[in-house]
Amino acid sequence: MIIHICFGTRDLAKAGTFYDAIAEALGAARSHATDTAIYWSKPGTGIGFAATLPFNGEPATWGNGVMATLGAENQAMVDRVHAAALAHGGTDEGAPGPRANGMYCAYWRDPDGNKMNAVALG
Predict the structure, then answer these.
(1) I want to staple 108 with a disulfide (CB 3.0 to 4.6 A). Which of 90, 100, 112, 120 is the partner?
(2) Residue limits of the Glyoxalase/fosfomycin resistance/dioxygenase domain (predicted)?
(3) How far apart are CA 6 and CA 12, in angstroms?
């Protein structure tokens, strides 16, 4: 069971702005913040995502082949999340639309290069 997903960042303020937009498009918000990390969730669900400065002090890097998938309520929410990502410094990795597996998805990378996608669950 996954409790939450955490991405490292080189710029916590920039990550905060980026993920605030993603969270808002998903109906979530910041749930906690410290000097080294920010956490987002939907009310009553616990922590779903975090961005953090690496504990070891080394620069944050992205993992090739690593991706976090966000569940969206419907196709319109996938569209809004993808648009929010691109509007706040993300790069497109696949526009919203149906995929060969029958799912409706969109893909992007955050400003640190971490790959994410959103999938319509409803």
Answers:
(1) 90
(2) 2-115
(3) 13
Residue 89: which of 10, 6, 34 has the closest Cα? 10
Count of the separate structural domains present in the chain: 1
Residue 104's CATH number: 3.10.180.10
Asked whether residue 21 is assigned to any structural domain, the reply reads yes
pTM over 0.70: yes
The answer to the question of residue 59 being in a domain is no
Strand pairing category for 104-109 and 115-120: antiparallel
> Does the pLDDT value for residue 111 go beyond 90?
yes
Distance in angstroms (rounded) separating the CA atoms of residues 74 and 60? 32
Task: Summarize pLDDT for 70-96 with one digit per residue, the tens.
Answer: 999 999 999 999 999 999 999 999 999
